[in-house]
Write a structure and sequence with these properties.
512 residues; alpha+beta; three-stranded antiparallel sheet; 29% helix; globular
Length: 512
């Protein structure tokens, strides 16, 4: 590899540029990520199933294709997939013991699309059992740790995916979200994630439901990418979106190119809490971001006044419980929802969607918290969460800021904006109009990035600090022993394009 080779924290679209410019091969890029997985994954437990030999074959084929002039959106780019999406011939367990040896015959359409676009599947990432929960822990693979601090949860249910992307084990991940499951982990792990408009991406091949069971979850759920830049999310969406001929709710709505927008005309409103319990670190961070954005666009401190977040959470949870079957046959003590009750839930959902769409008639973007607190320490689901010295219920704290937008189907992007005094990331949700133009939410995120807000310091579990700055062109970080720089300022040790790794190299990850 040459001196201009990107490191593992470069956004995916810049890795693709390096591949296109022949700065490195797909095989070399894959081996870089496999070496990092070998070195760091034992402490993280983010990647739970690898497909090394097939990945190497696919990478070689990508290099051969590029040499022949083939162009594909993701040609040669490694990616990982949450272990709830079926992958042909590769174990898909959903963390559920009866599926420990489940080998699907075909890929989920979303996985197939990433492969067809030239992506190189590395393997699968951890999840709670059947994706139920905000702690990626299950009896097959155990618990995943947050790469910022192993004592803390990476969030769920796409927590393994977020931890892998945050730690540089994968440049692009595919997760799922029925109540915050790509957004919560992105917030906890300091990366970007997209929950697209409902039915933008088919969820065919997702577990649950269990293989062979009727599809019950017809609202709330979507698939979404996790990455290290807004541009990567847009690229992934362009590959993933569209009908699959199996899930008929997915319409043939094209992905429009990013329009030319005068950011001064963008209308952004913000709420520091959505009227929900939210800690001081989070509310302060959001107010600070709003103040910075107000210098470049029209900003108003106001949430959707006529829209009830409380009712949206109530209806969302009731609809989820009505649509997700726990087994093929009703269980003892399980109450089935009547058709009349179900129709009433859908009617209330329609009204809540209409109210939020009316709000977006005069607003382009709503900015609000992802969760009321940064990542909490590992805990059994149901254990109360402490915010500013007070205990709050686990499930409502985990889901309350996110579930309303699953219910209404509005698109949301999560962007990291700062770190707490304890070194944990804080992200924000940027919510847009259903099926709205893609140009609305990237602009606030892009402007924030241009102001250098995302300079992060990541403590790995092997005693090293990694520093990077997402505003730079190429790798801007280096392994520096923590003992030498216990108070390292992340803004002063950036390494620009052409620099080499310094220190910390181990077997399988040589300094070149």
């Amino acid at each position: 590899m040459t001196a201009s080779v990107p490191g593992p924290f470069v956004p995916a679209h810049q890795m693709l540029q390096a591949l296109e410019q022949r700065d490195l091969s797909a095989v070399e890029l894959l081996e870089l990520h496999l070496a990092r997985i070998e070195r760091l994954n034992p402490a993280l437990n983010a990647v739970v199933t690898l497909d090394v030999e097939q990945a190497r074959r696919t990478a070689r084929q990508a290099d051969e294709a590029r040499a022949q002039g083939v162009t594909l959106p993701l040609l040669g780019l490694p990616f990982t997939v949450k272990d709830v999406l079926e992958t042909a011939g590769l174990r898909t367990t959903a963390g559920f013991l009866p599926l420990s040896d489940h080998l699907p015959a075909i890929d989920a359409p979303a996985v197939a699309r990433l492969k067809a676009a030239g992506g190189v599947l590395i393997g699968k990432t951890n999840t709670p059992t059947l994706a139920m929960g905000a702690e990626p822990d299950n009896p097959i693979f155990g618990r995943t740790n947050n790469p910022w601090d192993a004592r803390h949860s990476p969030g769920g249910s796409s927590g393994g995916e977020a931890a892998a992307v945050a730690a540089g084990l994968s440049p692009l991940g595919l997760g799922s979200d029925a109540g915050g499951s790509v957004r919560i982990p992105a917030h906890f792990c300091g990366i970007f994630a997209l929950k697209p408009t409902e039915h933008r991406i088919p969820t065919t091949g997702h577990i649950p439901e269990l293989p062979g069971m009727p599809r019950g979850l017809r609202h709330l759920a979507t698939l979404g990418p996790l990455a290290r830049s807004v541009d990567d999310l847009a690229l992934a969406l362009s590959v993933l979106a569209g009908p699959d001929g199996r899930q008929w709710e997915v319409p043939p709505v094209p992905i429009e190119p990013l329009p030319d927008v005068d950011r001064r005309q963008i209308r952004l409103t913000w709420s520091e809490d959505l009227g929900l319990p939210t800690d001081e670190a989070t509310t302060t961070a959001i107010a600070d971001v709003a103040a910075r954005l107000s210098k470049q666009m029209m900003v108003r401190h106001e949430g959707p006044l006529t829209w009830s977040v409380t009712e949206a959470n109530e209806v969302g949870m009731a609809l989820f419980n009505a649509e997700v079957p726990r087994s093929a046959q009703p269980q003892s003590g399980e109450r089935e929802v009547t058709m009349r009750e179900y129709i009433s839930l859908l009617d209330r959902r329609d009204r809540l969607i209409a109210q939020l769409e009316t709000f977006f008639a005069d607003v382009d973007v709503l900015m609000c918290p992802v969760v009321g607190t940064p990542a909490w320490t590992h805990r059994t689901p149901g254990t109360p969460v402490v915010m500013d010295g007070e205990e709050y219920p686990y499930w409502s704290t985990a889901l309350a800021h996110c579930m309303p937008f699953n219910l209404t189907g509005h698109p949301v992007v999560v962007v990291p904006v700062t770190l707490t005094a304890q070194g944990l990331p804080i992200g924000v949700q940027l919510v847009g109009r259903r099926w709205g133009k893609r140009g609305c939410w990237p602009w606030p995120a892009t402007w924030l990035k241009s102001q250098g807000l995302w300079v992060h310091r990541l403590r790995f579990l092997d005693g090293f600090w990694l520093t990077w700055n997402t505003t730079r062109t190429f790798l801007t970080g280096a392994f520096i022993p923590q003992a030498q720089h216990p108070e390292l300022d992340p803004g002063t040790h950036a390494v620009t394009r052409g620099a080499r790794w310094r220190g910390g190299a181990r077997a399988g990850e040589r300094v070149r």
